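Posting for a labmate who doesn't have an account.
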Amino acid sequence: MYRIARNILFWFDAEKAHYFSMQVLRMLCRVRFIKKIIKNCYCPKGNIPYSIFNIQFPNIVGIGAGFDKNALYLEELETLGFGFVEVGTVTPLPQPGNDKPRLFRLPSDKALINRMGFNNDGVEAVAERLKAWRSKVSSQQSAVHSGHQRPGDQLPAANAQLVIGGNIGKNKGTPNEHAWKDYETCFNVLHELVDYFVVNVSSPNTPGLRELQEKDSLRKILVNLQEQNAKKQVCKPILLKIAPDLTDEQIDDVIDLALDIKLDGLVATNTTISRELLTTGNEKLEKIGPGGLSGKPLQKRSTEMVRYIHQKTNGTIPIIASGGIFTGEDAKEKLDAGAVLVQVWTGFIYRGPGIVKDICREMGG
């Protein structure tokens, strides 16, 4: 069924099709009995919760940053069985991102190219949506405890609620020397509303952003966030998302810094600027232009980086793996390489709403 729907959607602009699909899902989920049917169809049966970062995840499969930039579809993504959703990338001020079109499909490679440019509604708007979502979840759970829930309500287990990550970045107009202030702003506004943070300095679509992956720049941003974190009543895990295009020397610098400042974890990897081994013709690629490549072509490099970091650190730095995950076998490859959790994005577009259930089933969960 989804293959037919996908073929139709692939006739249209990729970004418009994305928002259209999610809006349709949102409308369906507003009807309680339809939402129950969707949940029964797509949620993994016999979820195996997994604990890391002092957080219990309903399952190990999450949706990566960039899919729900503005925290618009949390309930819908939970209905499809995702164990965690990473919202963002969020910046202090709203920004439109790069000119459209900026999201492109490469069907023959099972890949996407994007140059979105951190388009988002700004941290204050995202914070308000997260407050509303958490208030609704809290009310539903209170209804359960008081015995006043309505028939058919689909409620998360209190000990395995959807986990929310906050992926934070800097505004395009912020000079790199002041970037740490943007990350601090987003961190403080979202601190009580997300379960963990991911610092994004690795998107290829904001000019100069990847320069912040250099050790000294990274240290300033991350140490400042840790200092902010220490002032809070409850500390939140802070992870760093890295690019697949780093050299071994650059990866070693990241590892050294992460160990030195006791960073909570890494996300490996973001999209790549490489176009190696693609079957899509050069003419089409030139027409599309620059952007970050995701999907199947990234699978091998992402796994190599997960394995490299895991071996270099003797498994002391938890890794969330992202890149080319379409099946349970792909997810197992990442876990065998040393990852603790996996994120999908492009795989969701190509495999459809059953991807979480399929991955969990194929892994025996």
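Reply:
Got it, the structure tokens are right above this. Residues 151-159 have pLDDT under 50 and may be disordered.
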